[in-house]
Design a protein that fits this description.
T2SS_GspH, single chain, cell inner membrane, 175 residues, 9 strands, 5-stranded antiparallel sheet
């Protein structure tokens, strides 16, 4: 038993105990950080896919509510008009088809994602049906890819049918 008075007993870590604790902490951090980065990228991707799905549903419900054609289109840089330029979608607009165009809602996508589609505009009829710019039934999809991270299922495909049914599937984007 220790004969020293209670006030003189040390209640601290030794240097070796401290170094071992720091080493264990560093190993845990080294393992956790890459997983956390992938988790953030997956959440960002899923969030944007869900936002795009809700925008499609908003445009469809506006078309039904107003009983007129409503457009969901690729936005220009200022988010005030539709863009016919090819390439990734940086933003979106929900507008009517009147002249001048009335913007119902607009938004930007996360710049760390690549959002692409074979079209620049969707039209929703007053019955809620999805049509192309030439008023033909449109069954197509959006492709969302994480720019950079190389984890499994680094993409999402938002598929929609002309009748309005939509779904999101996991996908793998090419390197």
């Amino acid at each position: 038993m220790d004969d020293r008075p209670l006030l003189q007993r040390q209640k601290a870590f030794t240097l070796i105990e401290l170094m071992i604790s720091l080493l264990v902490l560093l190993v845990l951090v080294a393992v956790a950080v890459p997983s956390f980065t992938d988790l953030l990228a997956r959440n960002r991707l899923s969030g944007q896919a869900n936002e795009l799905l809700s925008v499609i549903q908003l445009a469809r419900s506006e078309a039904i509510k107003q009983n007129q054609t409503i457009r969901l289109c690729k936005a220009n840089a200022e988010l005030n008009d539709c863009s016919a330029a090819s390439g990734s979608w940086q933003g979106w607009l929900v507008t009517d088809t009147a002249s001048p165009v009335i913007v119902i809602r607009a938004g930007r996508f996360d710049e760390r994602l690549i959002i692409s589609a074979a079209f620049t505009e969707l039209r929703f009829s007053g019955q809620g049906l999805i049509r192309s710019q030439t008023n033909q039934p449109l069954n197509s999809s959006f492709s969302l890819c994480a720019d950079g991270p190389a984890f499994a299922d680094n993409g999402r495909t938002l598929t929609f049918l002309s009748g309005g049914r939509s779904s999101i599937q996991l996908s793998q984007c090419g390197s």
